[in-house]
Amino acid sequence: MKTNRLGCLSATGIIAALITAFAIAGYAYARGGLMYNPGPLSTHGDERLGGVMSHAEIGGNCDACHAAPWEKAVMADRCAACHANIAEQMKEVASMHGTMLHDNPQLGCRHCHPEHRGADAKLTELGDAVFPHELVNFSLKAHQLTAAHEPFDCQDCHGDDISTFDPGTCDRCHRQIDVGFMTAHTLSYGGACLDCHDGVDRFDDNFEHNGFSFKIKGKHIGLSCDKCHFTARGYGDFEVTLQDCYSCHQKDDAHAGNLGPSCADCHSENGWLPATFDHDRSTFKLEGEHAEVECESCHVDRIFVGTPTDCYSCHQQDDEHNGQYGTDCAACHTPTDWDDADFSHNKTKFPLTGKHAGVLCLRCHSTGQFTGLSTTCASCHGDPAFHAGLFGFDCAACHSVNNWSARYNGPHPRISDEGGGGANHGGASCRDCHTKTLHTATCGKCHDGNPDGDGGGGDDD
Description:
Structural class: mainly alpha
Mean pLDDT: 79
Radius of gyration: 56 Å
Strand order of the largest sheet: 1-2
Helix content: 10-25%
């Protein structure tokens, strides 16, 4: 009788296979999965995440990163559990990781961050992933080809570590294109290329200076940037460069600072010479005869700033009055004509009114003295002999500038028109009654024996 043999599928074979599988699984579990480990984990790390400083500290705890096939979670979920900040970035399209995920939806963490390649292996390799380089403030639009006209690779600039960049890389690469330019450029602006350049470039051949407040005109056109921005070591230094002429041209100042720092008052961008100066922009405008005077006539020794603007400082040697009229030349003279003098006495403390208005100057200023004269009447008119010294020197008590013959016009303290008495005195002069002094009167001269008089012919106070 023939018996059917099932080989390894016999009951004995199946039992043996199960025992072997359980033994292997038990051994693998006991070893923590190390028997399937493809290589050591990286020791790189600069902060504690998930309780460890680096992946190497995870040891044989494989499920810390690897999810079992029957679990709903995947490896990316394990990464996000520790790298929570990166997980948040991936939700924002504007962030680096968010942009990469948006542009490369098929990517997972391990595509750029491979592991199990050794303790010192790099943890970042982009491979075929498109990295949004603008997010690190440097565009690759102007860096499509190397100096050898070959497409750029990450290693061309970053070497073996994509997360680092040596600024000297720019210099080494661009010296292959133009060594003379790079030598001069580095001497002018230093070697920190990224402080000014962003790859687009801000300072390429299409840079337009006239878009800024300082327009490039005249002789400034064609100047190299370092002529004005000679201390610039960063983009911010260009923005704060002083824009006044003197800051740049002080060394060229032939006036040694005597004309001040406002070069544009005389010069323009079209040429340092010829220079023109509009004196009307100053505090002293050139009018009349002054308009034709040579600059050196007033600005002796080429001193311009601080030159006095009063007439006497310049015309003292021309003063025919020898200082007797003071130093205010403009009180009589004008810039139109030195000889066409016109003095208004009404500007003084003694205005010329009444009969004084037509009097010749020399009648009062007989000695040629004009300042410091007394303004009292008696100083000029003295005491007339007619007064015989009886009335003092208060001329204005009886006289006015309108009429020297005028009498006392105020209400007489002793004489009134009541009863007709005033009319009887109308023809009398002051001397008729005031025979001795102005303050005493002698009535008896006229009224002696007159019943209407004082009867005594005596003096009245």
